[in-house]
Write a structure and sequence with these properties.
Radius of gyration: 35 Å
Order of helices and strands: EEHHEHEHHEEEHEHEEEEEEEE
Strand content: 15-25%
Number of strands: 16
Helix content: 10-25%
Strand order of the largest sheet: 3-6-7-16-15-9-11
Oligomer: single chain
Distance between the termini: 91 Å
Number of helices: 7
Length: about 325
């Protein structure tokens, strides 16, 4: 007969058969042995039970975190005052420069009392007409003797240094003689300066613009970037976008592009004396907006960047809602 092996009670040191789970002399019970695998599974189960039991609290904490983070981002933003269009026609060069200097001095982004308009950008001549936004929207360019009457379309840039990019809405509308509305021009409805990240954010009511101008669906958008160039930002790179496409290759979404925009005398207004207007056409900057909720983000540098990941001097973002 095989004898059962003996073990010693850790409490009273008495010997007893190992088949017993407790000491017959003092009644001490041995601790239960738990395998590591069982312990791991138990921990997982307990954790899952705790998670589901507190999931509502978890979601609440997550929501609070997101709200607090959004508030921190908002603290970095300063709203940019957007001045309305104004009539520049037949003003002298000095009068326009005086207004421009005043607006830059008041800018929350570019405030500079020593600023003077760059005359490579402002090649304007005295007392010439400027194309009026409402007249071109109503009647187009041809046979329009009143083309210069009313708020000038390029005054959005002259009056607002922070709007580094504005739009030159061409005469695509088939609805002539309609009542003029600011929605005829894709003007920013609001803008903010994110001073911590050196980013200007502009927002456009693109839905209202399309409702008012259905003929513009997916047509090329020509930009006026003279503000950027006047303030020293000479190189553009469209590094991020959604719902925006470029037709030409190469373009500013492929490689940094040196901008060339300026205001100078031209004859695009079809007036005998000519007019102060934007020039030149730059196909590398032209893009199409496919739908609402699109955006385009552009890095801008004063000097040509050696690498695309070089920190920009400023970032300009456009959101089409």
């Amino acid at each position: 007969m095989v004898k059962n092996s003996q073990k010693e009670c850790i409490f009273c040191n008495s010997k007893y058969d190992e088949k017993h789970k407790s000491c017959p002399h003092c009644g001490f019970r041995e601790p239960i042995k738990v395998s590591f695998c069982f312990l791991f599974i138990a921990v997982i189960l307990i954790s899952l039970i705790f998670y589901f039991a507190n999931s509502g609290r978890y979601l609440e904490l997550k929501q609070n975190f997101l709200v607090q983070n959004a508030k921190k981002i908002e603290k970095n933003l300063k709203e940019i005052k957007i001045r309305p269009l104004s009539n520049l026609s037949y003003l002298s060069k000095d009068e326009i420069f005086s207004k421009r200097i005043e607006y830059v001095a008041q800018s929350i982004v570019f405030k500079d009392k020593a600023y003077k308009p760059d005359e490579n950008v402002y090649q304007i001549e005295d007392k010439l007409p400027w194309i009026a936004a409402d007249k071109i929207a109503k009647y187009g360019l041809n046979n329009n003797p009143d083309i210069a009457k009313g708020p000038s379309r390029h005054s959005i840039s002259v009056n607002n240094p922070e709007i580094l990019i504005s739009f030159i809405v061409p005469d695509y509308s088939k609805k002539k003689n309609k009542t003029y509305n600011q929605k005829d021009y894709l003007l920013p409805k609001k803008a903010f300066w994110d001073y911590k990240n050196k980013t200007i954010k502009t927002y456009f009511d693109y839905g209202a613009f399309m409702n008012f101008n259905p003929d513009f669906i997916s047509l090329p958008m020509f930009i006026d970037e003279t503000n950027a160039r006047d303030l020293g930002y000479n190189w553009f790179y469209a590094y991020d976008s959604e719902g925006v496409i470029f037709d030409e290759m190469p373009n500013m979404s492929i490689t940094p592009y040196k901008i060339k925009g300026c205001y100078k005398k031209g004859y695009g207004c079809n007036l005998k004396e000519g007019c102060n207007n934007y020039s030149p056409y730059q196909k590398e900057l032209v893009f199409r907006i496919l739908d609402r909720n699109s955006y385009l983000k552009i890095k801008m540098w004063k000097d040509k960047p050696k690498k695309l990941n070089k920190k920009p001097d400023i970032i300009y973002e456009m959101y089409f809602e």
